């Protein structure tokens, strides 16, 4: 049932894809580990005291990364109001509250990145990475392995 509970933050098909690709969210010790598995972490080229960060690594699961990046474009035009669950789907209050927090946070994050002058693609990659972390948390809550 992970897919229906994640569907409060993203659509049902995307939630199902992420749940199927991940298998079990308990595989990942932390949310950043899940984002890394998706390939949504910045690359780094460092030497000595010089640190250079680049674009996302794209070395993780291509299908999960694509689903998250495509879902992140939604936060460009969505409102931070809570989304109602599908009819007949029972969602625990704790998961619903976290999904509503996620939607509001990602809308604000997208607006802040745009106001800071970041390009749409960079802003979308940042939102997709944060969305991956939220998906991990909600997935763990739905599995009953997180608070």
From TrEMBL:
GO terms for biological process: DNA transposition. It comes from the Bacteria. One of its GO terms (molecular function) is DNA binding. Residues 10-83 form the Transposase IS116/IS110/IS902 C-terminal domain. PANTHER family: PUTATIVE TRANSPOSASE FOR IS117-RELATED, TRANSPOSASE FOR INSERTION SEQUENCE ELEMENT IS1111A. This is IS110 family transposase. It comes from Collinsella aerofaciens (strain ATCC 25986 / DSM 3979 / JCM 10188 / KCTC 3647 / NCTC 11838 / VPI 1003).
């Amino acid at each position: 049932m992970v897919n229906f509970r994640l569907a409060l933050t993203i659509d049902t098909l995307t939630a199902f894809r992420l749940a199927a690709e991940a298998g079990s969210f308990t595989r990942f010790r932390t949310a950043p580990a899940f984002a890394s598995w998706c390939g949504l972490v910045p690359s780094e080229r460092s030497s000595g005291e010089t640190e250079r960060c680049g674009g996302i690594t794209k070395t993780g699961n291509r299908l999960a990364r694509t689903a998250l990046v495509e879902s992140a474009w939604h936060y460009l035009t969505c409102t931070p109001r809570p989304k109602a669950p599908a009819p007949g789907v029972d969602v625990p209050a704790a998961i619903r509250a976290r999904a509503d927090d996620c939607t509001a946070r990602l809308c604000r994050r997208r607006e802040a990145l745009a106001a800071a002058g970041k390009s749409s693609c960079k802003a979308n990659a940042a939102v997709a990475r944060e969305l991956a972390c939220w998906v991990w948390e909600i997935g763990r809550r739905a599995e009953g392995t997180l608070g």
